[in-house]
Structure formats: C-alpha cells, structure tokens
Amino acid sequence: MKQYQSTTEGAWIEFKIVELTDGEKATLASTDNEAKEQLIQSIKSQSKVLVGAEKLNELIAVYNAKKPELKESDTYELISANIDGNFNGIINCRVNNKHTQVRF
Amino acid sequence: MSNKKISELSQILGENVVKSTDMLALYDASAAQTKKISVGELQTIVALIRGTNYILIKAQGTDTENAAELQAAYNTAKTMSPSATNRITIVASPGKYSFSSDFTMDTQYIDLVSMDGNRSIVFNGTGTISITANDVFVKGVDVGTKSFTIATSLGLLKIENCKGGDYSFGFSSSASIVVSGTFVNCDAGDYSFGCAQNAFLVQANASGVFTNCSAGNTSFGANNSGDAIASGTFTNCSAGENSFGVDTFFGYGSASGIFTNCTASQYSFGAYGGITLGTFYECSGGDEVFGTAGGCDGVFYRCIGGNKSFGNNNGLTGFLLGKLYWCKKTAGTFQTVSGSGQTRMCLDGTNVENNQG
Q: How crowded is residue A14: how many other Cβ atoms within 10 Å of its Cβ?
C-alpha cells in the first residue's frame, strides 16, 4: 500500500520502493564505501518523491478535513502527517503548543 | 428409554458409532429440508456453552482438544452474525491450547478474552495466533516465544495483557507494516510493535496507542533499511536498542509521537541520523539517543540520555533544534543549539547546567 508523509503544510512526499539490481545489492554489501555512499544517496533521492498534482490535492483535502478545528487565536504547528493509500493515517501537531494527535 | 444427554449419544448408539463419519439426520424446518450432521459435530456444538453474545470455552480436555474447542467456538461465532452492534465474545477458561497450525482471527467483531483476565490462554503448540481482522479485541493470550502475529493497518484492533516472542505485534520482512491499533500491558521479544527487517525501503510505522508495553531490541517503529516511524502514543513503554523510530541503514527514523515515561537502550529515539519531532516526557535512553547524528527537534521534559545524545555530536554530526527542559545527559556535553532550539535548566555529563537559546 502506498504511504505518504507531510512535515510541511501543503507539501507531501510519497515513499517509493526502489528495486535494486543484484549488482547494486552487492555494492551495498561491499566495503567500497565511496560507491556505497553514492548508491545510498541515489536510492534516497528515488525513495522519497514529491506527490503529483492530482494526488497532492486529494491528500491536502484529507489532511484539511482531519486536522483539528482551530479558533482564530489558536496557534498551529504541523509535526508530521502520515497517510496511507486508503487515506487512513495519523496527524501529529501542536495546537497552542500542546501536542495533539488525530487518527483516522 | 430414560432421558439421555446428546453428549451421551455415542453410548446410546453403541460402541461401534464412528463420531467423525456416522451421520444423524436433522430436519431444518425453516428450509423444509433434511440435513446431516456427524455425531462428533453434534457433540462439539452441544458442548459449547453459549449465550446470545458469548461462547464459553471450558478447556476440560487435552491441550489439543482445547485448541479444537476454541477453533470450533470461533467457527460458531462466525455464524452468530457478528457486527458492530452484535459483538461476539469468546471467553476462554485458563488452560493450554495446542494448535498445530495458526489460529486465525479473520472476522471482525469476534473477540477473544481469558476468563480471569490474566494471560491464561496459553498457546503451547506449534501454531500461534494470527489476527487479520480489524475490529477485534483480544485479552489474555500468551503464545510464549512464538510470534504474536497481526496484519498491517488494523486501526481498530485492541490487544490487552498478551505476550509474544520475537517478531510480535507487527513485523514484516516483505512489505510495509503499520501498527495502528491499541496495545495495553503487552510484552514481546525483539523486532516487535512495528518492525520491518530485510525488506528494502518498506515502511515500519508504530502509529497506535501503546501503554505499559515492552519489547526487545529493534522495536516500536524500527527498520534496518527503510522508513521507521514512531508516530503513536507511547506511555510507560520500554525496549532494547535501536527502538522508537530508528532506521539503522539510511537514517530514515523519526520519532514524532507522544512519549511518556518510556525507556530504551542505546541508539534509540530517532538515532542513526534520524530525527525526533515529537514530545517526550520523562523518557530515558542509553548512549546515542534522541536524534543523534540527525536532528533532535521536538520538546523534551525531564528526559535523560547517555553520551552523544540529544543530537549531540561528540564526533558525530547532528543538530539540536528542539526545546529541552530539565533534561540530563549522563555523559558528554550538549550540542550547540540551532534555529529555535533551547535548553533550560539542563545538566550535562559533569552536572554543569546548560541554558541555551
């Protein structure tokens, strides 16, 4: 199942599973630290990608519907929101500096 | 003929009755047809003590017979129209239940609880418990050193006073595992409560509610090659090393939940280049905890870490971005704060007070 995360309002990333070749697996297991580090950085860049526009709108809509209702004077800080492909998930945030969680 | 119990059918029918194959004809008035049932099946059904919403397991037989009785009860419960407004509870007497294959709870609204509330439903066979249905309550099951198995993303699952071995309460070696249920007084071995191992770049997320739970190493949102997220509510929980939002390979760990009075060994709470984002009350760990080599963000009250903790480097890179109040390091000094980071009335390893930001 797809997994999405946001730690900044309006920006979402999707966790991608990167398929490795046997050669890449061997590199990760090797003692060639330079090659290994290069590969890790490459994997990192492929494994977390910005969500496309259509999905982004869906995620933002779900997030906005689920985040705590705020009064005008409330302060709000998003810590992290994790949502899966079925739009179940959890929002960790601070409302008036109090840590609040919303599960859905 | 004097009255006889149905359970005494075999006596009535003689010694030659074969319970598994000899059939009795029953007339189903509602369907206007005759059906057949084996003597053995009839005796099993009659043996079940049941009410409108419960079935009692007497567990008077051998360990294997007790397991068969529990399985029969579960099968019967499925026929009792379980629903959100019609939960069926199987109440199991204290005893040993020997399953040769896993006892699978695959139907919502059927609960399993021990009669005395203790961990007295003891699985001592080769089979363990496997929960795949979402809205299920289980209390008092002890599977020993076997894995107490649950499927991913069971947000309505509630497990209380249960025990498993390694790889319990949410483990995967092939896909993402999200542990989003509620767990109270549960104990497990290593690689438990939301752990992925050897499944490259899948996610392990402990987003549920965990109260008075304990585990071994690499637990509560732990991974060895992918995202490890401890985003839930953790109260009075303890674990070994590499636990609470730790990815030991990429540094993809994050501890973004609420942690109260939780303890772990070294390399925990967003270590290995991970990040702490959540709120921590009176938590403690060994060396290299709380965002070591990554980012120590979030808010900490009266927390204790060992050397190289709280994003401190002492040879490792890391940032102290969070707010630390009355925190203590048992060794080493505090990292210089970055951004909006603050320390107030904290003590370093030599009991020198630290106030920054």
A: 18
At A38, the amino acid letter reads Q
Name the pTM for this structure: 0.88
Per-residue pLDDT of chain B (357 residues; tens, 9 = 90+): 456 555 565 565 555 667 667 777 777 777 888 888 777 777 666 666 788 999 999 999 999 999 999 999 999 999 999 999 999 999 999 999 999 999 999 999 999 999 999 999 999 999 999 999 999 999 999 999 999 999 999 999 999 999 999 999 999 998 899 999 999 999 999 999 999 998 778 899 999 999 999 999 999 999 998 899 999 999 999 999 999 999 998 888 999 999 999 999 999 999 888 999 999 999 999 999 998 888 999 999 999 999 999 987 665 678 999 999 999 999 999 999 999 999 999 999 999 999 999
Question: CB contact, 8 Å: B200 with chain A?
Answer: yes
Domain ranges of chain A: 3-103
Query: How many cross-chain Cβ pairs, A to B, lie less than 8 Å apart?
Result: 70
> Under a CB-based contact definition with an 8 Å cutoff, are residues B277 and B294 in contact?
no
Q: Report ipTM (2 d.p.).
A: 0.89
**How far apart, in Å, are the Cα atoms of B69 and each of B18, B50, B89?**
19, 13, 15
With CA atoms as reference, report the closest residue to B135 among B161, B168, B166, B111.
Answer: B111
Give which of A92, A100, A103 to mutate to test B binding, by max B Cβ within 10 Å. A92
d(CA A8, nearest CA chain B) in Å: 12
C-alpha B348/C-alpha B280 separation (Å) is 18
In chain A, what residues touch B226 (CB-CB under 8 Å)?
Answer: 47
CB contact under 8 A, B232 and A90: yes
Angle formed by the axes of helices B63-78 and B39-47, to 10°?
80
Tell me whether A41 touches chain B (CB under 8 Å).
no
In this structure, the number of other CB atoms found within 10 A of the CB of residue B339 comes to 12
Bridge partners of B356, per DSSP, are B343
For every residue of B36-80, DSSP letters joined together read EEEHHHHHHHHH-EE-SSEEEE---S-HHHHHHHHHHHHHHHHTT
Backbone angles phi, psi at B339, to 5 degrees: 55, -125
Nearest to B231 among A20, A80, A84 (CB): A80
Contact across the interface for B200 and A20, Cβ inside 8 Å? yes
Inter-chain CB proximity A1 and B153 less than 8 Å? yes
